[in-house]
Fold this sequence. Notes:
The chain is of the alpha+beta class. It has twelve helices and 15 strands. A six-stranded mixed β-sheet has the order 5-6-7-2-13-12, sandwiched between helices. Strands 8-15-14-11-9-10 form a six-stranded mixed β-sheet, with helices on both faces.
Amino acid sequence: xxxxxxxxxxxxxxxxxxxxxxxxxxxxxxxxxxxxxxxxxxxxxxxxxxxxxxxxxxxxxxxxxxxxxxxxxxxxxxxxxxxxxxxxxxxxxxxxxxxxxxxxxxxxxxxxxxxxxxxxxxxxxxxxxxxxxxxxxxxxxxxxxxxxxxxxxxxxxxxxxxxxxxxxxxxxxxxxxxxxxxxxxxxxxxxxxxxxxxxxxxxxxxxxxxxxxxxxxxxxxxxxxxxxxxxxxxxxxxxxxxxxxxxxxxxxxxxxxxxxxxxxxxxxxxxxxxxxxxxxxxxxxxxxxxxxxxxxxxxxxxxxxxxxxxxxxxxxxxxxxxxxxxxxxxxxxxxxxxxxxxxxxxxxxxxxxxxxxxxxxxxxxxxxxxxxxxxxxxxxxxxxxxxxxxxxxxxxxxxxxxxxxxxxxxxxxxxxxxxxxxxxxxxxxxxxxxxxxxxxxxxxxxxxxxxxxxxxxxxxxxxxxxxxxxxxxxxxxxxxxxxxxxxxxxxxxxx
Length: 495
């Protein structure tokens, strides 16, 4: 039995039918021609079944504490049935990318069933009219609740369920349920035992609060000092930068993805000293939001602000799930028209945001949240959500950009090669458009999830993303320094 952290529990508390709190991963596969072509659904089912023990996330479900007096627990689902979680669907005609994106948006909008382990997968066929995919390609759309994973943990699980070589799918065998010691969970305890645990934890809460406040005092001092030197220009006011993506969301979703060659992103990065791949990605997204909002005559004069999750996960946390993230807040520079100047300024803003985060500590708010009594935390979150609904207010950020490095080596499932990946984060009130960036081998994807009413034309938005990339690519080529003699090869900068 494993208790959820306060951060994990937040994603359960703020979830609603209009705002499901899961992360979805899109995995696209090319068939293995030499080994017989199309992959059968039963082969995928057997392959997934053989890998379930790689992470406890797959077999555990929620157990709520009576009256919400403590954070919930993960416990082993004694009635676990893989076929209740893995579904087989064919893409409706015409079966092109537009139809595929609409299908993914529909699946992403559906809330997960809390009575079972909080994940599900869809094996999707009928992609033959997606012009850049070979015949018999297929996709897996994997949804896992944000209470169980963050982006990094999700990709670790995705990597773990694949083979490193194109091996045949396992033969059909009856698998025994793994022992609880291997999954980090155990069967559900009695209600009285849960209440006893809640009472014990509540007695420890005052000491935790005192300890957290003691740690917070020097942090506030460092934050005050860092904030004086952080900004290269004033932080935009919230009223001045409200966009169509703020306010109250509906239950309908829009999703889409753009795919790029990693070498092209690196070439742009090399044009600005000190820039990273993440800087280039944020500059591309900044240009896309600028272009889209200009087309709608709705671009604020002040720059928009984005949140960038930062992983605080350690090696010990690998495959254990949960959320281990802090959040950077940075100016996106959407008020700068020139693409190269925008990238240069984004690089400056990112550096300043990182320095501020290092001074304050990326995990400070996570530590503080663990000291707040769960019942008080839940009441506070619900009150804040209700106030936001009543006032239709925006959040301090206009969007988020989650960047997670994927596998650098080929991955296979039933001999089929994983060729492209994408991810779709949850959408929430005040944050009607969010972005996820994934890399896999020599490719990179930029994907969006949005409230359909706020972004009724996702295909046009992805056109803006592609246009922003090309204008930045053209700008860096035109202003590239003269060629010099090849220098010694340096280590490639990480994402």
